[in-house]
């Protein structure tokens, strides 16, 4: 009787842990997507005058912010230093852009 009680207890713990793992994996995917989106926004906004990824060489030669147009060019996957630093981020999404 005790062995079946222990088995059901272990089974319940396994189910609880599996649900928790699934929840944590969903949280991780959501956070990585948020990082990717914020990184995209940052790179797009700062392409014209420089940023922490490519440097600030264009900063002094850029126009005033009111007259400046935002360049939305293709983002080099190598410039995604935050997204590619994650070992669990989906690399296919980064390379496709």
TrEMBL record:
One cellular-component annotation, GO: nucleus
Major localization class: nucleus
InterPro entries, A to Z: Eaf6
Sections of the chain in a coiled coil: 14-41
Biological process, per Gene Ontology: chromatin organization
Protein name: Chromatin modification-related protein MEAF6
Assigned keywords, A-Z: Chromatin regulator, Coiled coil, Nucleus, Transcription, Transcription regulation
Signal peptide from the UniProt entry: none
Localization annotation: Nucleus
Source taxonomy: Eukaryota, Sar, Rhizaria, Endomyxa, Phytomyxea
Family to which the UniProt record says this protein belongs: Belongs to the EAF6 family.
Organism field: Plasmodiophora brassicae
